[in-house]
Amino acid sequence: MYTNIVRCRACGFGTPENPGGIKSGQPTDKLIPVLDLGLHPLANNFVKEGEPRAGFAPLQLLFCPQCSLAQLSVVVDPVQIYEKYAYVTSPSATMREHFGSLVRDIKTESKNGSVVEIGSNDGLLLAFLADAGYGNVVGIDPAKNLAEKARKSGVVVINDFFNEGSARSALLASGEVDTVIARHVFCHVADWRGFVKGLEILASKDTVVCIEIPCVTDQLEACSFDQVYHEHLSYMPIKAMKALLNRTLFHLHRVIHYPVHGGAHLVMLRRNDCVMPPHPSVQETLESENVTLERWQAFAYEAKLRIVRLRDRVRSLRDMGKRVCGYGASAKSTVWINACGFTKEDIYGVYDGTMEKQYCTIPGTNIPVIHEGAFYADAADYAICFAWNYFAECKAKQHKWLETGGRWIVPVPEVRVIGLDTAESQA
Ligand code: TYD
Questions:
Q1: Quick one: which atom of ligand 1 is closest to the CA of 328?
Q2: Nearest C-alpha neighbor of 339 from the set 364, 367, 313
């Protein structure tokens, strides 16, 4: 189901376990373990009763002292994760707003030519790009269910992982590529060299390659350990991206920060033969980011405290006879719920509007996903917002419930309770 990792994916640091020639007791250059959450199910393995479930795999992070990349200690077989994928790009107002900013910023760096999107999901961003006047829009995505969904909205999708073969097919479908976009897919990929080889096929001298990744300094700041799961193989500072690119045809061209998903970076790359000078944001980001072993160790310590805090808070509510549910069956909810060891007795269900997750259980548990439409009528006393990155939106949507005495528990950046009649309180 998974393979172990011993080398840094970005800079190559690290020796294999017991390498020939190194005697016991001699120093080795091993990656350093910083967080260990034990065995976890695959966070998006939402299946219905009777359907086969994927197994469990370790959730452990290793830190590279050379380029500061943190990465999972294992890589789960990607076919197992992505062939049928439950994550659907949210059509939420928050996401639409983000896509608006993204397209506006990308336009300042590109012409309205052809766009290839790697990891095009259900085609939502491709539709945005087509509306914004881009020429051919082509997606590449390995999930059969999502590729079919995107095709129904009229866009061309190559149903495959991104590799040299699918890059060639995309090039054939799109003609000369003006812009390549890869949103939150790069850190899901184990073979970065293969990925960059695919980019080399797609990109010409004037192509801008836009890679959106989570902002690791924001993740450290917020201690959003719930974003550590088997799909997220890498936690990447810009310094590590620079180390990776050192041995390729590309260089860093520009870095833009966005608040979406708890903080993200859009990293723009250009080929080394492009004459445009790099934007000052590259140097500024490299100088300001402070990603160290000590910060990752503090992150791990704080994560364990928060898990205990949420578990204690929910168990004491349960002892008081309160009904507690979750809101947003995000991958993050799977991490929280499994890390806390919650069962249906603690959280009777998690509400979510996504069709694909209906009638499933939260991976690794017996907690059902319930249709979001039933939330108000079911009248829970407390709802844990596992879609905390959309909290403002969830709160506005369920305002009536709040008015009737419902209370939110928001687990990030601090475990806190929010009700109309309460001052915000920390657990
Ligand atoms: P999301 O944060 O997008 O991703 P991840 O799975 O990577 O952690 O997941 C948010 C989930 O919350 C998603 O399943 C959709 C759901 N959701 C609702 O059901 N209703 C809402 O109003 C919002 C904003 C999200």
A1: 12
A2: 364
| Any atom of ligand 1 within 6 Å of the Cβ of 358 | no
With tokens 């990752």, the residue in question is 296
The number of the ligand 1 atom at minimal distance from the alpha carbon of 397 is: 22
Mean pLDDT of 224-241: 97
Distance 270 CA to ligand 1 centre (A): 33
Pick the closest to residue 8 from 257, 247, 266, 285 (CA basis): 247
Both tokens of 288, joined, read: 């300001």
- pLDDT digits over 45-87, tens only? 999 988 888 999 999 999 999 999 999 999 999 988 888 777 7
Q: Is the CB of 333 under 6 A from ligand 1?
A: no
Ligand 1 neighbourhood includes 371 CB (under 6 angstroms):
no
Nearest CA to ligand 1 atom 7: 331
Nearest alpha-carbon partner for 290 in 328, 333, 239: 239
Residue the block writes with tokens 């929280």: 336
What is the position in ligand 1's atom list of the atom closest to the CA of 261?
2
| Rounded distance between C-alpha atoms, residue 118 and residue 27, angstroms | 41
**332 alpha carbon – ligand 1 mean position (Å):** 9
Residue 24 confidence (pLDDT) above 60? no
Q: How many residues does the chain have?
A: 427
Q: At 20, is the pLDDT very low, low, confident or very high (cuts 50, 70, 90)?
A: low
Name which residue sits closest to atom 2 of ligand 1, judged by CA: 387
- On whether the CB atoms of residues 101 and 258 are closer than 8 A, the answer is yes
pTM of the model: 0.91
3-state helix, strand, coil in the chain (%, to 5): 35, 25, 40
Spatial contact of 69 and 236, defined as CB atoms under 8 Å apart: yes
